[in-house]
């Protein structure tokens, strides 16, 4: 019995040292690809958010100018304003979705960094704690809890890079082309916000608020921006729908499907592994004595 405890203690100490040494080394391909995915996806989401906010600013200026055109009796301005309302609403909703996606990516990146730094070290520490538990005859439930903690940390260390790789494959192979195409279309319109922001303050308040001023070239430029925005309204709505659908799909995959799959796998492993290990140890330690032979 003493020899068995010594062997198990030695094995736990060796495993603890092995896990601690392994924690200093990154997984060659998975960690690098996961870091690259988080950086690329966050950069893409940030660009999409900036483009969407720029488009929202252009639409807001256009809607303000519509109110000033209405007293002139021009019915086209009313129709243009009604056309810009869904664009304004979609940009607001898309902005909220992109903020949630950026926050989700940031949380996953932080979780990945923490798991990479402490998961294997935590396993090494738990294995060392299990050594005295062998000698004080700790209850099986305490040993099962230690085993579960090790399994959870091990799954976190390897499952987070795996989920990041799955997300990266879906992102680069399916969603990124759709996102880049939509952002390119919206960027043409949102770039005009920079041109509007360079105008004097009295001209930024409305497209035709300075009709009596001498800055005819600025007014003509704003008029052309307004006309382009109205003419491209259908394409803008299509691009917004594409971008919203792509990021919504990415958000559902990252926040719902992959985490739920990881939790399901953890539940399966935790429900089976510790119980089987303890059952095997108990059966090994409590084997029935062989029957005595009759003389």
UniProtKB/TrEMBL annotation:
The chain crosses the membrane at residues 110-135, 147-171, 246-267. Keywords: Membrane, Signal, Transmembrane, Transmembrane helix. The keyword Transmembrane helix applies. Residues 1-21 form the signal peptide. This is Uncharacterized protein. The lineage of its organism: Bacteria, Pseudomonadati, Pseudomonadota, Candidatius Mariprofundia, Mariprofundales.
């Amino acid at each position: 019995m003493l020899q068995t405890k010594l062997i198990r203690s030695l094995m736990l100490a060796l495993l603890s040292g092995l896990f601690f040494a392994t924690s200093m080394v990154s997984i060659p391909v998975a960690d690098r690809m996961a870091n690259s995915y988080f950086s690329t996806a966050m950069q893409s989401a940030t660009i999409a958010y900036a483009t969407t906010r720029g488009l929202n600013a252009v639409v807001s200026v256009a809607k303000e100018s519509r109110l000033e055109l209405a007293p002139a009796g021009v019915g086209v301005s009313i129709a243009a304003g009604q056309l810009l309302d869904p664009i304004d609403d979609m940009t607001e909703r898309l902005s909220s979705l992109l903020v949630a996606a950026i926050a989700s990516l940031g949380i996953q990146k932080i979780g990945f960094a923490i798991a990479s730094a402490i998961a294997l070290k935590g396993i090494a520490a738990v294995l060392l704690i299990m050594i005295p538990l062998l000698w004080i005859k700790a209850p099986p439930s305490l040993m099962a809890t230690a085993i579960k903690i090790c399994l959870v940390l091990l799954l976190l260390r390897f499952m987070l890079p795996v989920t990041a790789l799955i997300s990266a494959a879906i992102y680069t192979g399916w969603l990124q082309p759709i996102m880049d195409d939509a952002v390119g279309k919206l960027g043409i319109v949102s770039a005009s916000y920079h041109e509007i922001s360079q105008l004097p303050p009295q001209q930024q308040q409305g497209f035709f608020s300075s009709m009596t001023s001498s800055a005819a070239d600025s007014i003509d430029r704003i008029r052309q921006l307004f006309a382009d925005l109205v003419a491209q309204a259908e394409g803008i709505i299509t691009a917004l729908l594409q971008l919203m659908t792509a990021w919504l799909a990415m958000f559902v995959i990252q926040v719902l499907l992959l985490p739920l799959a990881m939790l399901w796998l953890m539940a399966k492993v935790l429900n089976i592994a510790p119980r089987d290990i303890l059952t095997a140890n108990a059966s090994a330690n409590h084997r029935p004595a062989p029957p005595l032979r009759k003389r």
